[in-house]
Amino acid sequence: MNRRNCRSASMLLVLLVAAGWSGTAGAGADIDFGAAIRAGDDTELFMAISSRYFGRDPGDVRDWRARYRDPDDAAVALFLAGRSGTHPEAVFQLRSGGLSWWEVGRRLDVQPEAWFVPCSYRPGPPYGRAYGFWRKYESNHDYRFELKDREVRDLVAVRMLHDYYGMSPAVAMKWRSGQQDVQLLMAREYRKRYPHERADRPDGDRRHGDRGEGHGKHGGGKSRNK
Known about the structure:
Elements: H1 3-18, H2 42-54, H3 58-65, H4 71-84, H5 88-96, H6 101-107, H7 128-137, H8 149-165, H9 169-176, H10 182-193
């Protein structure tokens, strides 16, 4: 890690501690990272948010984000590490062995309900199949069903949007259904809440539009078919 990245990581850690970061996995508090994030840098912003949400040191998140080409997979790996209390290295080794994300979760004894944000209705595609299985077997608290990697990535993205920003399940699912990865979605919502960063961009961050579907407390990547 170069000197500039070390300085950014240190600034993030100070901000996280000041904001009450507990170092444990779970829902994060939505905070403004300010000058610690370079304007327009979605990757840096996503790592800062992930550090806060998953209760991981910023340097660790940076290292593990680099292990996965797809930010959705990095999010799933950190999710499983947090939910199981396992070091991310163990998650990486299981995944590298060719296991599906669902099977990795099974091996780590992550309960099926951990993946799902409860909602009062049965969601439509692409969530209907996953939620249908869960409702059928939730009383057994076991893995009598199998989800595809694409479904698992969708569920983690929805959970991050819901937990971190307080976004309703319906809005989170709608955003994710737009086939955008979790990094872009989390960064886009952050910039809506902290628009001072937008002024620093030459294009005003207009690339992602300015949708107003709803904002949890304050008011959806590429197709993956595996």
